[in-house]
Amino acid sequence: MHILVVDDDEGIRHALERILEKAGHTMIWAATVEGALRLLHTEEASLDVVILDINLDREGGGYDVARKVPRDIPLIILSGLTPEEVRKGAVQVSNALSHAVTILGKPFENKKLLGILSRIKPRERVPASAPKEFPPENGSTKP
Question: What are the C-alpha distances in Å from 122 to residues 3, 10, 12, 107, 126?
Fold first, then answer.
């Protein structure tokens, strides 16, 4: 799967890179809200999962990113907060986590993260079709 990791902790990003690549996944990352939003915009079609540090960058930063993750992309939340604290924050910012798959506490167990990922199906890609010439060279008016 192609995974976007959004975390401002370089150690976490490097650990996730080792774990995910060893398991056969590809990873791109962002360390800031702005970087995450840019990658969500440019890479959306190729992403299968987003792993997001909810305490990113500044207060509310992770929630800002969570709101922008398309609903068809599974969202895994990382946090040093308890799941209840994370959910409480989400309610305060328009239920930003309504499509989150799970909230994974930091530090997390590699096996637990990989188990969560194993239950997520990669998103189906719609193949780009070749443009059709219209009208066809043979003079037919049917597309």
Answer: 10, 26, 23, 25, 13
